[in-house]
């Protein structure tokens, strides 16, 4: 983990950069185009979007305008809940691909475990993977019981599970389950949408290394072997978030951060959502 180009090796051998750039709530058009172009200029090679973010088009435009060869980038998108089901997922994928202006995506994910639908949805992902349209497939927001249900009869084990993960929601059991099954854990809202930036423990640890609380959290993610995708539209923050490869947290600091856990979510509970 020495640079933005370093990555986790997924169970099918595909390399996924440890640090990515998220675009949730970033407006399509100029805002997302500029943010993604800035991230790519800074050195990010992993971009995470989703159909429901409604900014795939801008992400695709930024990729095209960046001048970086497509094979050097790792692009993720996700199928939204209203499109779940076998045939509808295949169609949703084509729509996403068209908006992104790409021939393939590196990672395609089931956005939420929609009851009675996520297995058929995942079957469509398996088909896309077999057809070579995606380099890796996975899920988001799956708890252990969802994963067990999926693993019971899927043909291809998910490569990634992207979940809410930060120092107040450390999901130790889930992390350990994923590790045991060769599923790479990935964090969304790693900074708890900014709420953790005022935490006194994180500020204190940051002072020791000359780093911001955000940088401390992102480094903690990486040292826990969790891929992470912070989001920002501010150029200096985009740069700052990437500047986490020149220091290492001690075991004692890692433990202090782990102890901040309160099982507190900022997003919906994957067992009780209605969208």
UniProtKB/TrEMBL annotation:
<dbReference type="InterPro" id="IPR023210">
    <property type="entry name" value="NADP_OxRdtase_dom"/>
</dbReference>
<keyword id="KW-0521">NADP</keyword>
<dbReference type="InterPro" id="IPR018170">
    <property type="entry name" value="Aldo/ket_reductase_CS"/>
</dbReference>
<dbReference type="InterPro" id="IPR036812">
    <property type="entry name" value="NAD(P)_OxRdtase_dom_sf"/>
</dbReference>
<dbReference type="GO" id="GO:0016616">
    <property type="term" value="F:oxidoreductase activity, acting on the CH-OH group of donors, NAD or NADP as acceptor"/>
</dbReference>
<comment type="similarity">
    <text>Belongs to the aldo/keto reductase family.</text>
</comment>
<keyword id="KW-0560">Oxidoreductase</keyword>
<feature type="domain" description="NADP-dependent oxidoreductase">
    <location>
        <begin position="19"/>
        <end position="261"/>
    </location>
</feature>
<dbReference type="Pfam" id="PF00248">
    <property type="entry name" value="Aldo_ket_red"/>
</dbReference>
<dbReference type="InterPro" id="IPR020471">
    <property type="entry name" value="AKR"/>
</dbReference>
<protein>
    <submittedName>
        <fullName>Aldo/keto reductase</fullName>
    </submittedName>
</protein>
<feature type="binding site">
    <location>
        <position position="111"/>
    </location>
    <ligand>
        <name>substrate</name>
    </ligand>
</feature>
<dbReference type="InterPro" id="IPR044500">
    <property type="entry name" value="AKR5G"/>
</dbReference>
<feature type="site" description="Lowers pKa of active site Tyr">
    <location>
        <position position="78"/>
    </location>
</feature>
<feature type="active site" description="Proton donor">
    <location>
        <position position="53"/>
    </location>
</feature>
């Amino acid at each position: 983990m020495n640079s933005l180009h370093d990555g986790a090796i997924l169970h099918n051998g595909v390399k996924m950069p440890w640090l990515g750039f998220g675009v949730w709530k970033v407006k399509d058009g100029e805002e997302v185009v500029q943010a993604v172009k800035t991230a790519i200029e800074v050195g990010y090679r992993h971009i995470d979007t989703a159909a429901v973010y409604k900014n795939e088009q801008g992400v695709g435009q930024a990729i095209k305008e960046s001048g970086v060869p497509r094979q050097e980038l790792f692009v993720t998108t996700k199928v939204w809940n209203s499109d779940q089901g076998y045939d509808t997922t295949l169609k949703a994928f084509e729509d996403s691909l068209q908006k992104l202006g790409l021939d393939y995506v590196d990672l395609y994910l089931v956005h939420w475990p929609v009851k009675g639908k996520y297995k058929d949805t995942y079957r469509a992902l398996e088909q896309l993977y077999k057809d070579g349209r995606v380099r890796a497939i996975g899920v988001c927001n799956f708890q252990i019981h969802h994963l067990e249900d999926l693993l019971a009869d899927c043909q291809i084990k998910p490569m990634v599970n992207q979940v809410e993960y930060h120092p107040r929601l450390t999901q130790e059991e889930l992390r350990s389950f994923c590790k045991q099954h060769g599923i790479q854990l990935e964090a969304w809202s790693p900074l708890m949408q900014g709420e953790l930036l005022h935490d006194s423990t994180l500020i204190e640890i940051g002072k020791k290394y000359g780093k911001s609380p955000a940088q401390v959290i992102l480094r903690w993610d990486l040292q826990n072997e969790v891929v992470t995708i912070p989001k920002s539209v501010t150029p200096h923050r985009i740069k700052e978030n990437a500047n986490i490869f020149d220091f290492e947290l001690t075991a004692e600091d890692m433990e202090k951060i782990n102890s901040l856990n309160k099982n507190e979510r900022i997003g919906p509970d994957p067992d009780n959502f209605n969208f």
